[in-house]
Design goal:
The protein is mostly helical and 411 residues long. The longest helix is centred in the last third of the chain and has 31 residues. Helix content is 77%, strand content 1%. α8 runs antiparallel to α13, α14 packs antiparallel against α17 and α15 runs antiparallel to α16.
């Protein structure tokens, strides 16, 4: 352990920060551009399907690869391999749009990329939480480099007028190659899965990463995980329709405007370390849900008034909302599980939020958008309904969550 800490001190931690930076630059280059890229090609109708590709993939691969990291392979090497493999499919997906192959070709390639890449955030969180000194305080300070990466990516896209250009996704594939190489430089994070006679125990349950389902035996974690699914449903609309609303209100650089959420995310990351030292995790999560509620109420006000100011303020609420909920949630899960299933536990959280919640959210938000957008004050009804959904998540979590009795696990 002392040798490991020495390597971290000599540069391992720097590579963790670099990995957070690069893993966020890649989607920052294309994710918020995608709605307007598809709209530019008269393919806005396919947007819900395009955003469902990632969540659909997240239903399967994170748990399987998380199990591999717990039982067979070093987490950082597995992540690096996945990043390099996924880079090719990411590049092909946007090259297909650039070459006029049609949106369904994009979805096919992007689905392959998502299947390969979906576990990477969970694997990176595992590496960071396993190797950083005082991880609960240090993790947000390293995770902040991901926020910086997303901001720089968004500003770059708008600076070069790529807000509606498939080229942004092709550039992102090159960034993913750099990420893959950086992953191999991170600290060694060996599998710690259950062993008998120094041989890893293997069975179908462990192979598919289902050991992590033990999290549902803990009432507090069960309520948190269910809330995470529900919370991810209205969140899907943020990425799908905010860029479109911005452009309709006259914003000529919607991708740059979307980085407002990441600017406030930096502040939230810096604040979070202090909050986690003083407050119970439960209250940090409730505050996050409150920010999400205010965000969509401000969006509805933008729809009512036609003013960009309100939607910009709403985007600014996304930073603390995302940070206080998802980063705190990762720390909560890491605190409450045994080391031998840490990768699977983080993968389960990703599967429930990005997979189940994201898939349901893409479908429901797509249908809801189609039903409301052509109404009088359609944006008001659209965002207002999502605000009501967020409020329901908050009420459920507040009334159902029970913190554990042991101080070391207190949430």
């Amino acid at each position: 352990m002392s040798g490991l800490k020495a390597r971290i001190g000599k540069g391992g931690a720097w590579w963790i920060a670099m990995a957070f930076f690069l893993i966020s630059v890649a989607p920052g280059l294309w994710l918020t551009s995608l709605p307007n890229i598809l709209k530019e090609q008269d393919a806005e109708w396919v947007l819900p399907y395009a955003f469902a590709a990632g969540p659909l993939a997240s239903l399967f691969s994170p748990l399987i690869f998380g199990s591999m990291a717990d039982n067979r392979f070093s987490a950082q090497k597995l992540m690096g391999t996945l990043s390099l493999l996924g880079a090719g499919f990411l590049g092909l997906s946007f090259y297909s749009l650039y070459s006029g192959w049609g949106p369904w070709a994009y979805i096919a390639f992007q689905t392959m990329n998502a299947l390969i890449s979906a576990p990477m955030w969970a694997l990176l969180s595992t590496v960071a939480l396993a190797n950083l000194d005082n991880p609960e305080r240090a993790f947000p300070l390293y995770r902040i480099w991901g926020t910086i990466g997303w901001i720089l990516a968004g500003l770059t896209v708008s600076f070069f007028a790529l807000d509606s250009a498939p080229m942004s996704g092709m550039i992102a594939s090159g960034v993913r190659v750099l990420l893959g190489l950086a992953c191999f430089m991170m600290p060694e994070t060996l599998p710690l899965g259950k062993r008998e006679n120094n041989v890893a125990v293997r069975n179908w349950r462990r192979y598919f990463g289902l050991d992590a389902l033990v999290l549902f035996n803990d009432r507090g974690l069960r309520v948190f995980l269910i809330t995470s699914i529900l919370f991810a449903i209205p969140l899907a609309a943020f990425y799908m329709y905010t860029p479109i609303h911005l452009k309709e209100l006259g914003d000529t650089h919607p991708v740059a405007s979307m980085t407002l959420g990441q600017v406030t995310e930096i502040v939230a990351m810096l604040v979070l370390s202090g909050l986690l030292a003083k407050w119970r995790l439960r209250w940090v999560l409730i505050i996050a849900i409150g920010f999400a509620l205010v965000r969509y109420l401000l969006y509805a006000l933008a729809g009512w008034s036609g003013s960009l100011t309100w939607i910009w303020l709403g985007i600014a609420m996304h930073g603390p909302c995302y940070t206080f909920y998802y980063v705190t949630g990762q720390i909560l899960v890491n605190r409450r599980v045994e080391p031998e299933i840490r990768s699977q536990a983080q993968a389960l959280l990703g599967t429930l939020t990005n997979g189940i919640g994201g898939l349901i959210g893409s479908a429901i938000c797509g249908l809801y958008y189609a039903k409301t957008i052509n109404m009088v004050n359609g944006w008001v009804f659209f965002w207002g309904g999502l605000a009501a959904a967020v409020l329901g998540c908050g009420v459920y979590f507040y009334t159902s969550y029970e913190r554990p009795t042991h101080r070391k696990d207190a949430g």
